[in-house]
Amino acid sequence: MGSKHLVVEVEEAKIGEGEEEPVSPAGQYFNSSALYVSILAMFESDVPIDDSQMFPLLDTLLPINPRFSSIMLKNERGVQQWTRVNVNLADHVKVPVFPAGLSPPDYDKVVQDYVSKVGMDRLPESRPLWELHIIKYPTSHSEGTFMFKLHHALGDGYSLMSALFSCVKRADDPSLPLTFPGNSTTAKTVGSGGPGLVSLAINTVRDFAWGLAKSMFIKDSVSPIRSGMDGVELRPIEMSFLKFSVDDIRRVKARIGGLYMQSIGDGSKSTQATALVMLNTRFIHKSTQAIAPVKPKEMNKPDAEFPWGNRVGYLHLSIPSRDCRNKDDPLKFMSKVNRLMKRKKSSLGVFLTAQLLETMRRFRGPEVAARYIRSTLENTSMAISNLIGPNEKMLLADHPIRSFHFMVVGVPQSLRITIVSYMGKLKVAMGTEKGFIDAKLLTTCMEKAFARIYEAAIEEKP
């Protein structure tokens, strides 16, 4: 692939002459001495990959937001800024070479090791913080894979996936826009789930205090899903996947987590495990919930309803485990988690946490706030995040996409779970600490747990 230089002009988000765009607080947290967090977005192709279409694809991607053609630099006052640079696209496109002639199952492991290594590597800070890896080898899942590595400082999953979705077309009719799962009912928002102001106040104080304690000094137990090792984010990860029907999920809103620990002999009631449920704060303060991504250039406007950037909050959710032992009534487990989530929704703890981080940043600097976020991650067992994908099959650079998923890398946790919908299916991706978590057993246990809950749900009388 030849070298190509491109200077991008962005109409909807112009930076004035002599001005630079300041790096957002969240962007500073995610690229600090305490945290270095990126997102891997994997698109699996139905056909062998022809990389001749990659530069036109990137020509479409780069103008979407100035950050794709900027680097992070400190000005004379020590403030981090996004500084526009010329982009040599060839520096950002990687085409790995693997041993030839292997079978698809053998390439599964080779690709897995490559993805793990890319996830651990740092992006060069001398050029914009993204890469495209073109894996031109067939696996059990695809004929080839496009993998985008995007630093979290560029934006959150909603921003970045909106950008990537704007670069794809519908496979059945490229002239038509992609459609996304809709939501015909009004969504309950954080702060609207309780019976009144008293409940809101009590739940807010409880959740904020508990989150503060968890972040500062209360750690989850060492367990089969949490090694508690220092520097766990630097250890290789193994990725495994499950797929569920969206229609099945709509019938049962299941939350899984306890069965795996019981399967390997750790079902103790005293074991404390907490999940961080990641939230898109663009939506939780609105009376209705936007489901489909908006056009990325609309997100760049100063008065955008859904602005570009990192608009992420989190809730601490204690993971029930003992209820899963009751094989006669697995819905008790789901009901318990459902009650917990309803109570969490009747709380403004996520907003108080955001204010705490902003106060830390202003008075003690972004590094202190980043260390607080790191402590929050280290003291919990897992993080869960999800995104909405299109209903129709996608074409990426004229390649029909069989499946896609994403994973957050660089976080100090042994287990990360991401969920994305595509063509009526939910794909659950699990990034597990290699050599510590048995990924195959975890996948099997999750499949069994969902099957038990689903069977109980469809058998239960209305």
UniProtKB/TrEMBL annotation:
<dbReference type="InterPro" id="IPR004255">
    <property type="entry name" value="O-acyltransferase_WSD1_N"/>
</dbReference>
<feature type="domain" description="O-acyltransferase WSD1-like N-terminal">
    <location>
        <begin position="36"/>
        <end position="184"/>
    </location>
</feature>
<dbReference type="Pfam" id="PF06974">
    <property type="entry name" value="WS_DGAT_C"/>
</dbReference>
<feature type="domain" description="O-acyltransferase WSD1 C-terminal">
    <location>
        <begin position="308"/>
        <end position="453"/>
    </location>
</feature>
<comment type="pathway">
    <text>Lipid metabolism.</text>
</comment>
<keyword id="KW-0808">Transferase</keyword>
<dbReference type="GO" id="GO:0005789">
    <property type="term" value="C:endoplasmic reticulum membrane"/>
</dbReference>
<protein>
    <submittedName>
        <fullName>O-acyltransferase WSD1</fullName>
    </submittedName>
</protein>
<dbReference type="InterPro" id="IPR045034">
    <property type="entry name" value="O-acyltransferase_WSD1-like"/>
</dbReference>
<dbReference type="GO" id="GO:0005886">
    <property type="term" value="C:plasma membrane"/>
</dbReference>
<dbReference type="GO" id="GO:0019432">
    <property type="term" value="P:triglyceride biosynthetic process"/>
</dbReference>
<comment type="pathway">
    <text>Glycerolipid metabolism; triacylglycerol biosynthesis.</text>
</comment>
<keyword id="KW-0012">Acyltransferase</keyword>
<dbReference type="GO" id="GO:0004144">
    <property type="term" value="F:diacylglycerol O-acyltransferase activity"/>
</dbReference>
<comment type="similarity">
    <text>In the N-terminal section; belongs to the long-chain O-acyltransferase family.</text>
</comment>
<dbReference type="GO" id="GO:0047196">
    <property type="term" value="F:long-chain-alcohol O-fatty-acyltransferase activity"/>
</dbReference>
<keyword id="KW-0256">Endoplasmic reticulum</keyword>
<dbReference type="InterPro" id="IPR009721">
    <property type="entry name" value="O-acyltransferase_WSD1_C"/>
</dbReference>
<dbReference type="Pfam" id="PF03007">
    <property type="entry name" value="WS_DGAT_cat"/>
</dbReference>
